[in-house]
Amino acid sequence: MKPKIWISIDAQPEIDLTELFPFVKFDGIDNNSPVLTNSYQDSNVSDGNIFNYGNFGKNTVNVNLDMNFGTYYDYQAKRQQLYDFFMQKKLFRIRTDADPMFVYFLRPVGFDIKPFQEGGWDCFINIPFENPSGYKFSRYDSLNQLDLWDDFPLGWDIPVVDKEDFHIIKQPDFDLINPSSIPIDPYLQKCDFKIVISYVGSRISIINTDNDSVFTFTGENNFNRTIVLDGVNAYENENNVNDNTNFGYIKLEKGINHISVRGCEKFDIKFVFPFIYV
Questions:
Q1: Is the model's pLDDT at 183 over the cut of 60?
Q2: Residue 263 burial (CB count, 10 A)
Q3: 65 part of a folded domain
Q4: Which of 69, 102, 134 is the last residue of a domain?
Q5: How many other CB atoms are found less than 10 A from the CB of residue 273?
Q6: Mind telling me which InterPro entries this protein's record contains (predicted)?
Q7: Structure confidence by residue, pLDDT tens digits, 72-115
Q8: Which of 47, 163, 207, 253 is the most exposed place for a label (fewest CB within 10 A)?
Q9: What is the mean pLDDT of residues 8-31?
Q10: At residue 73, what are phi and psi to the nearest 5 degrees?
Q11: In this structure, is residue 16 part of a structural domain?
């Protein structure tokens, strides 16, 4: 079976690259290792440096192609088609059949298209993409996973869970898994994380007892209002309602998180986020 690569540009529908350009063979991608950058502060009174913080930096993902051509004019025409497609100042979402449930969000940089040898009829093309986040993401978010056991390789120590494990009803204390390589932190790391909330009562508080992050919303509700905590901001019908909150947010640690819901009679909560990997 020939390797496959699918590309979406600026959230447009996915394109199978080898169907769009039948004269191109996809030879896989090379994903550089994660880049961890540490910041230090000079100490005036002791040897060495004082650690400030660490950040994952951008890395590079290389897409490898093989372009066959017949004549010089054929070469020029195919070369131009590839440059027109890849040389765009847009965000590319890329996934392959080797890891079909993972996607990268990338930006292209310059590359050459030329025969691998004088008189040759093939161009071995290496297209470097910058990966600004340094991460790869699950193809689907938590509410659109079919079954983590099916979608992810065995051996990752992930319990058998599905999308219903991210939709919580009635249980005031429950476990919520974050299968990511990193904590889901919508404040410091600007991670995409939405909590869709409805309840019965005059207020609701959601508490992660593992890190003491708390979100509280105050306002009468009888399952007739839906509050969306989008990162660190709360909305109702797309209107900002932060004034009705404690200006808090929820952070998820890696692995199992212990969540409590207080202050209301009943509730219906959905936790929506992509899984993030280094």
A1: yes
A2: 15
A3: yes
A4: 134
A5: 21
A6: Siphovirus-type_tail_N
A7: 999 999 999 999 999 999 999 999 999 888 999 999 999 999 88
A8: 47
A9: 94
A10: -70, -35
A11: yes
- What mean pLDDT comes out for the span 118-139? 91
Tell me the DSSP string of 209-270: TTTTEEEEEEEEEESS--EEEETTEEEETTEE-GGGB-S----B-SEEEEEEEESSSEEEEE
Q: Are residues 196 and 242 in the same domain?
A: yes
- 96 and 205 both lie in a single domain: no
Q: Report the predicted TM-score, pTM, of the whole model to 2 decimal places.
A: 0.88
Domain for residue 112, yes or no?
yes
Phi-psi region of 249 (alpha: psi -120 to 50; beta: other; left: phi over 0): beta
Calculate what percentage of the chain has a pLDDT beyond 70.
Answer: 95
Q: How many domains does the chain have?
A: 2
Residues 165 and 252 grouped into a single domain: yes
The alpha carbons of the chain give a radius of gyration, in whole angstroms, of 24
Give the three-state DSSP class for 57. strand
d(CA 197, CA 241): 13
Q: What is the CATH number of the domain that holds 268?
A: 2.60.120
Q: Which two tokens stand for residue 254?
A: 């890696």
**Tens digits of residue pLDDT in 32-51:** 788 888 888 887 777 788 88
**How far is 121 from 127, CA to CA, in rounded Å?**
19
In the chain, % helix, strand, coil (3-state, to 5) comes to 10, 50, 40
The range of the structural domain enclosing residue 20 comes to: 5-134
Q: Using alpha carbons only, what angle is made at residue 79 by residues 76 and 82, rounded to the nearest 5 degrees?
A: 150
Tokens standing for residue 267: 């509730």
174 and 271 inside one domain = yes
Q: Is residue 143 part of a domain?
A: no
Secondary structure letter of residue 201 according to DSSP = E
